[in-house]
Design brief:
The chain has one domain. The chain is built from two helices and no strands. Helix 1 runs antiparallel to helix 2. It is rod-shaped. The two termini are 59 Å apart.
């Protein structure tokens, strides 16, 4: 009789241990899912912010330059100055994107 109780106790103990281990794994996976979801949301926000920044800056400047060239006679130096400004804006935006992306991946 004592052996039967001891075996039953061991079975209950092992079963409880397995259940606790499964619960631990579920909690761990839930935390990973939440962390990955947060990282994905941050990356999406960063992409939207970068798109808006590029669209509101360099893209609109290019549109302005195209209209100016079509409507008015723009000298080459003035056009080069505009294009260099757009180039610098794009470089700044790319650098911001790289900096923010590297901080996200840490």
């Amino acid at each position: 009789m004592d052996r039967v109780l001891m075996v039953q106790g061991l079975i209950v103990l092992v079963t409880v241990g397995i259940i606790l281990y499964i619960l631990y794994l579920c909690l761990h996976l839930w935390r990973q899912k939440r962390l990955l979801s947060q990282q994905l949301q941050l990356q999406q926000d960063l992409m939207e912010k970068t798109f808006a920044s590029i669209h509101n800056g360099p893209v609109q400047m290019l549109g302005f330059i195209i209209r100016e060239v079509e409507v008015h006679q723009v000298n080459q130096l003035q056009l080069l100055e505009y294009l260099r400004g757009i180039y610098q804006d794009i470089l700044v935006n790319v650098e911001k994107l790289n900096t923010e992306d590297s901080t996200l991946n840490r």
